[in-house]
From TrEMBL:
Keywords: Signal
Domain of life: Bacteria
Protein name as it appears in the record: Taurine ABC transporter substrate-binding protein
Similarity-based family: Belongs to the bacterial solute-binding protein SsuA/TauA family.
InterPro entries: Peri-bd_TauA (IPR010068), Solute-binding_3/MltF_N (IPR001638), SsuA/THI5 (IPR015168)
C-alpha cells in the first residue's frame, strides 16, 4: 500500500471510530424526572454524582407530581422518574410499560393530612362536610380517599379537590379549603397554620400502604442495566450516610444547604423533612416483601390493591391480574450498606 492509500485508509478508520464514539455518547443520554420531596439522594442531583457514577449525560427535570412524570414518560420525553405508588398503579393499569428498580421511601410521616386552624376539625370524626385537597392521582390522593372510605364516608360527605400542591397551599392559606394531604415543601407550609391530623403511615396501618420509587421505562431498563445499578448505588450511598452520620445531614450541613438550593425552602426545613422519611435497605428492598419474588413481590401486591381501589373510585377502568412484572430487584444485585 502506497503512502497516499495508507493515509486514506487511516482517515477512514479514524472517521469510523469517531462516528462510533459519537453514537455511543448519544446512547448514553437520559432524561430523569424528580420531585420536590426531600431525599438524601437528591444531593447527588445537585453535585453531579449520578452522572459521574453512571457515565451518562443526565438531564434532570423537576415536576410537581408523579402523574405529570408519567405523562412525560408516556410521551417519550422522560426515561427515568421518581413517582408514588398510586400514579404508578394507574399508569401501568392503562398500559404503560415501566419498572420500579429502587424504593425511595415507604409510608411514613413525611406525608400527612394537615387541617387548618379554625377549620373546626379536631379529629377524624369532624371531616364530614369539610373541604380537603390532594395532588391528582398522587399517593396522597389515594390515601385521602382510602381514609374517607375507612371512616364510612364518601366524596359526597367530604369534598375532595384534586389540585396541584402549589394550588393546595394557596387555597389553604386563603381559607378556601379546610385541609390538604401533602408532602414537603407543602407539608411544612400547611403546618404553619394548622396541625397534622393523620400521617401516611397511619393510613397505611389502616390498610392503604404506599411507596415512592424510582422507575424506568421497560425498554430503557432492558437496554441500560448498568445505568440502573450505578444509579441505585449512588442512592444507597446517600441513604447509608443519612442513617449513620446524622451530623452530616443537620440544618447546618452542606447536604441540607444543597437540598434547599435544589428543592427550595431552608436548610433547616430540609433537615427536618429528612427525619420524617422511612427508608429501606437494599437487602430489604430486594426481598420478596418488596421488589423481589417476581409475581409474588410485595410492591406488586400494593400496586394491585391500589389499582383495585382506584377502579372502585372510577379512576381507572381495568385492574391487571398481577403487577409483579412492573417491579424488579435486578439493580440491587451486589448493592449493600
Amino acid at each position: 500500500m502506497n503512502f497516499r492509500n495508507l493515509v486514506a485508509a487511516i482517515a477512514v478508520g479514524v472517521g469510523t471510530l469517531a462516528t462510533a464514539v459519537v453514537a455511543e455518547a448519544a446512547d448514553k443520554k437520559v432524561v430523569v424526572a424528580y420531585q420536590t420531596d426531600a431525599l438524601p439522594s437528591s444531593v447527588a442531583i445537585a453535585n453531579g454524582e449520578f452522572a459521574k457514577e453512571t457515565g451518562y449525560d443526565i438531564d434532570f427535570r423537576r415536576f410537581n407530581s408523579g402523574a405529570e412524570i408519567f405523562a412525560a414518560i408516556a410521551s417519550g420525553d422522560v426515561q427515568v422518574g421518581y413517582v408514588g405508588s398510586s400514579p404508578f398503579a394507574a399508569a401501568v393499569s392503562r398500559g404503560l410499560e415501566v419498572k420500579a428498580f429502587y424504593l425511595a421511601s415507604i409510608s411514613g410521616i413525611d406525608e400527612a393530612l394537615v387541617v387548618r386552624n379554625g377549620s373546626g376539625i379536631e379529629s377524624l370524626n369532624d371531616l364530614k362536610g369539610k373541604k380537603l385537597a390532594a395532588a391528582p392521582v398522587s399517593t396522597d390522593h389515594y390515601q385521602l380517599l382510602a381514609l374517607i372510605k375507612s371512616l364510612g364516608l364518601t366524596e359526597k360527605d367530604v369534598q375532595v379537590f384534586a389540585i396541584p400542591q402549589p394550588e393546595i397551599v394557596a387555597s389553604y392559606n386563603r381559607g378556601d379549603i379546610d385541609g390538604g394531604f401533602v408532602w414537603d415543601p407543602a407539608l411544612t407550609e400547611l403546618k404553619k397554620n394548622g396541625k397534622v391530623l393523620v400521617t401516611s403511615k397511619e393510613v397505611a396501618d389502616k390498610g392503604a400502604p404506599t411507596f415512592s420509587a424510582w422507575v424506568a421505562t421497560s425498554k430503557f431498563a432492558a437496554d441500560n442495566p448498568d445505568f440502573l445499578k450505578g444509579f441505585a448505588s449512588v442512592i444507597n450511598k446517600y441513604y447509608a450516610s443519612s442513617a449513620s452520620d446524622k451530623s452530616a445531614w443537620g440544618p447546618d450541613s452542606d447536604n441540607a444547604k444543597s437540598l434547599a438550593k435544589l428543592l427550595g425552602g431552608t436548610a433547616d426545613q430540609q433537615a427536618s423533612a429528612l427525619k420524617n422519611l422511612t427508608l429501606l435497605t437494599p437487602e430489604v428492598q430486594a426481598s420478596d416483601a418488596w421488589l423481589g419474588g417476581g409475581d409474588k413481590a410485595g410492591a406488586g401486591k400494593i400496586l394491585k390493591d391500589t389499582a383495585s381501589f382506584l377502579k372502585e373510585q372510577g379512576k381507572v377502568s381495568d385492574v391487571l391480574a398481577n403487577y409483579g412484572a412492573f417491579v424488579t430487584a435486578d439493580a440491587l444485585t451486589g448493592v449493600s450498606n
